[in-house]
Request: fold
Amino acid sequence: MTQAPERLTIAAARRIALAAQGFGIARPAAVTAGHLARNVARVGLHQIDSVNVLARAHYLPAFSRLGAYDRALLDRAAWGPKRQRRLFEYWAHEASLLPLALHPLLRWRMAEAERGLRGWTRLKAFAHERRPEAEAILARIRAEGPMAASDFEHGKSRSGWWEWGDTKQALEFLFWSGHITTATRRGSFERVYDLTERVIPSAILALPTPEPAEAQRRLIDLSARAHGVATAADLRDYFRLKPDEAKPAIDVLVEEGALLPVTVAGWRQPAFLHAEARRPRRISGQALLAPFDPLIWERARAERLFGFRYRIEIYVPAEKRQHGYYVLPFLMDEALVARVDLKSDRQAGRLIARNIHLEPAAPPETRERLAAELALMAEWLGLE
Reply:
């Protein structure tokens, strides 16, 4: 007889999810490259975003979990010399920094982009009728070394083939398809491209390429580890897999016992618990969470887990915003208890909390603990 799925309370599911994301662990007194590497491996990726009103989004998840750290550690891991590189850029959830070990697991996606099956619609022409333009750009990078879109002449290049916008599109096609990757970032965080074999360590490129189904299974397993407990939609969203890619992977993992079907009180959808997920009795600690933190980037999941409705309001007219422009939820122990609209005023050297909204059930100590976390963030950013 088939055993009924285990039923989890929402409080238990919340603790499992927080533990899977690295919360509830004492922050180290001094953050090393090893701490940073283990943290990125646990969450699977750091999403990249261009908004810099507070700090670049990819720096914030590590601060939320580890506390103040030297951002140069992350810079070296992502864009340092080849021998020091531990991360690479690719399209995973969105544009992301990922551990090098994940490179083989995303080559099927690169191969699909090469055939015009992945990437934005406007890029797909470069896989077919506009392929000579992409090949010409690739040849120029091969001959001249790392180049950004701004290194190609405005208007027509010396070849006379393409307009400025077309150059960027061709570069992005080559990036999607794995021919080039990010060598470094410069200026206003502009991506500088180089041949993949000149950026990614040869030991990583030499790793065997799994079949797509195997790679997708391993990505779902990583997603499940990062979630702790999740619905099928949550699992496929983490690395942006399609339903027909995720479902067979989930089925195999259930059959193997790596995923355990469960129900969570209050959730309409069936859920899956990773077999190795920690089940702590309590979670302690506090953290300010970036809008693109993997704990909350899937807004429906954040609402299911925490009863916390969260929407980023960057593109909402100022007079219509509820909570502010760049709002960070404040995690305290096992609940999201406040929202803080933050800005780094770099000219004045100050961290500004433009708005603070406490949730209705926020406990009395919320303000004191939030003030301590804001002071830590200000110190980390070199601000008052």
Remarks:
- The longest helix spans residues 212-227.
- The CA atoms of residues 139 and 236 lie 36 Å apart.
- The chain has a mean pLDDT of 94.
